Amino acid sequence: MKITVYTLPDCQPCAATKRLLTRRGAAFDVVDVSTDALARELLASWGYSAAPVVHVAAVKGLVLASLATRPGVLVDTAARSARWSGFRPDALDVIAPKGAA
């Protein structure tokens, strides 16, 4: 599973998302959309205008199925990916469970 967190500077929900993932020992990439025009365009094409946006790729079946039950989480079963906007402890619990570190 590959986790990417799209962030902005001084964004408290972004910091909370990264803190939770770090505390749980999850590996993730961070993309600052204030300095990355391609990332800004990608998020706009997905319909997002607020940060953070979390994109999870190469998701296994049960994790993907669990994410699909979360309101506001967009799941692409063909691509085995999911994404959402905002600090979402419920979705983060699925991809980085408590006690998994």
**How do the SSEs run, as a string of H and E?**
EHEHEHEEH
Mean pLDDT: 95
CATH superfamily annotation: Glutaredoxin
| Gap from first CA to last CA | 15 Å
Number of strands: 5
* Overall radius of gyration: 13 Å
Please describe the biggest sheet, giving its number of strands, its sense, and whether it closes into a barrel: 5 strands, mixed
Task: Tell me the overall shape.
Answer: globular
Summarize it.
About 35% of the residues lie in helices and about 25% in strands. It is of the alpha+beta class.
Q: How are the SSEs placed, and which strands pair?
A:
Elements: E1 2-7, H1 12-23, E2 29-32, H2 37-45, E3 53-57, H3 61-68, E4 74-76, E5 81-85, H4 89-95
Notable traits:
101 residues; alpha+beta; Glutaredoxin; five-stranded mixed sheet; 4 helices; 23% strand
General description of the model:
A hairpin with a 4-residue loop joins strand 4 (74-76) and strand 5 (81-85). The chain has helices spanning 12-23, 37-45, 61-68, 89-95; strands at 2-7, 29-32, 53-57, 74-76, 81-85. The chain has one domain: Glutaredoxin (3-Layer(aba) Sandwich), CATH 3.40.30.10. The mean pLDDT is 95. The protein is of the alpha+beta class and 101 residues long. 36% of the residues lie in helices and 23% in strands. The longest helix has 12 residues, at 12-23.
